[in-house]
Specification:
Rossmann fold, ten-stranded mixed beta sheet
Length: 343
C-alpha cells in the first residue's frame, strides 16, 4: 500500500475517533446540564413550597407564639419544682443573725457600728447581717433565717424594731436579743441592757428569760392592747364581765409605756393586768383634785362579742376586729437579758 493511502486512512480514523469523542462529551455535558437544571427546579420548588408554608394568618401566628411561651413556662416551672424538691436549704455557719434598723445605716452611727462589729468578732459571736428598709419584709427574712439554722436574732436599733421582731418571731423557736441604738430603748433597759457595747458582752453571756406573750385571735402581741370608748363588755375567764361605757380599757402583758396608774407587772406570772379607766364627766375635767377611779383586774382569757367592728390598738397599731378572743401564752418568748433586768 502506498504511503499516501496509509496517511489518508490514519487521518480518517483519527477524525472518526475525534467525532466519537466529541459526541460522547456532548452527551455527558447534556446529561450533566439536565441533572443540574432538574436539581435547580427541585430547589426552587422546595423554596417556593417553604415560602408558601411560611405564609400564615395573624391568628395562627399568635396561637403558635402563645403555645410556645406556655410550653416554656411549664418547663421552667417543672424544673423549679424539681430543684426545690431535691435541694435542701443551705445551713449558715453561725447561729446569730443581726438586723440593722434603717436609721442606723447613716453616717451618724458608722463609727459606733464599727465598734459593735469589732466587739462581736472578738467575742466570736458575729453572724449573718440584714440591713432593713421599708421594702424588706422582716417576718419573711426571720422565717428564712430560722429555716437555714439561725437560732438567735439580734436587733440593732430601738424599741420599735425590737417589738416588730418579737411579734414577727413569736411563732418560731428562736431567741431574741438587742443592741440598743437611738433614743427610744425602754424595752432594752427593762431587759437589763444599758448600752450598745455592754450589749455585746450580755449577748456572749447568754442569760435567757422566758416571757409571757399575748394573743388576739391568731395574732400574738408583746406589750398591751388599748380599747378606747368602750361599748361592749369584756368577759374575763368566763367568771365576770367588765363594762365601762365610754371609758378606756388597757390590757397589759408588760408595762412598756411605764404607765404609773398600774402596779408593777410581772410578765412571767401567766396573767394579764386589766386597767379600766371610766369616762370623765364634763365637770370633773375642770376639778383641780381629780379623783382616781381606775380599777385593776386580772385574767387569762378575755372575750369581746359584738355585731359591729371594734377598733383596738395592739402594741400601738390600729386593728379593726369583730369578735375578739384574747389569751395569755405563758413563757413563750425567749429573751437574752442582763443582770440588771427588771422583767
Amino acid at each position: 500500500m502506498p504511503k499516501k493511502e496509509v496517511k489518508k486512512n490514519n487521518t480518517s480514523n483519527i477524525k472518526k475517533k475525534a467525532k466519537v469523542l466529541t459526541t460522547s462529551k456532548k452527551k455527558k455535558i447534556l446529561k450533566s446540564t439536565a441533572k443540574e437544571t432538574g436539581s435547580i427546579k427541585k430547589r426552587t420548588s422546595k423554596v417556593v413550597t417553604k415560602k408558601q408554608e411560611k405564609i400564615k394568618t395573624f391568628e395562627e401566628l399568635l396561637h403558635s407564639r402563645t403555645s410556645n411561651t406556655n410550653l416554656k413556662k411549664n418547663i421552667r416551672g417543672e424544673l423549679l419544682r424539681i430543684k426545690r424538691g431535691n435541694n435542701t436549704p443551705k445551713i449558715y455557719t453561725s447561729p446569730y443573725a443581726y438586723f440593722y434598723a434603717d436609721f442606723v445605716q447613716g453616717s451618724k452611727y458608722q463609727k459606733l457600728l464599727r465598734s459593735i462589729e469589732n466587739r462581736l468578732t472578738d467575742l466570736d459571736i458575729s453572724g449573718r447581717t440584714h440591713k432593713l428598709s421599708q421594702f424588706k419584709n422582716l417576718e419573711e427574712i426571720i422565717e428564712e433565717d430560722v429555716r437555714r439554722g439561725i437560732t438567735t436574732i439580734v436587733i440593732i436599733g430601738d424599741d420599735k424594731l425590737l417589738m416588730d421582731a418579737i411579734n414577727a418571731s413569736a411563732d418560731l423557736d428562736v431567741v431574741v436579743g438587742v443592741i440598743p441604738v437611738g433614743n427610744d430603748n425602754k424595752i432594752a433597759s427593762m431587759m437589763g441592757v444599758p448600752g450598745p457595747i455592754e450589749a455585746c458582752d450580755i449577748l456572749s453571756q447568754r442569760i435567757l428569760e422566758n416571757i409571757d406573750m399575748g394573743k388576739v385571735n391568731d395574732k400574738k402581741f408583746f406589750s398591751n392592747i388599748e380599747i378606747v370608748d368602750q361599748k361592749n363588755p369584756l368577759s374575763c375567764d368566763n367568771q365576770y364581765e367588765i363594762l365601762s361605757p365610754g371609758g378606756s380599757i388597757s390590757i397589759y402583758n408588760i408595762n412598756v409605756l411605764n404607765n404609773p396608774e398600774i402596779p408593777k407587772i410581772d410578765p412571767r406570772d401567766g396573767y394579764f393586768e386589766i386597767l379600766v379607766t371610766p369616762k370623765q364627766s364634763f365637770t370633773s375635767i375642770f376639778k383641780k383634785n381629780k379623783e382616781k377611779n381606775e380599777s385593776v383586774f386580772f385574767g387569762k382569757n378575755i372575750s369581746i362579742s359584738s355585731d359591729s367592728s371594734i377598733t383596738i390598738f395592739i402594741d400601738g397599731k390600729k386593728n379593726i376586729l369583730k369578735n375578739i378572743e384574747i389569751e395569755i401564752i405563758p413563757k413563750s418568748l425567749k429573751l437574752i437579758v442582763g443582770k440588771e433586768r427588771t422583767i
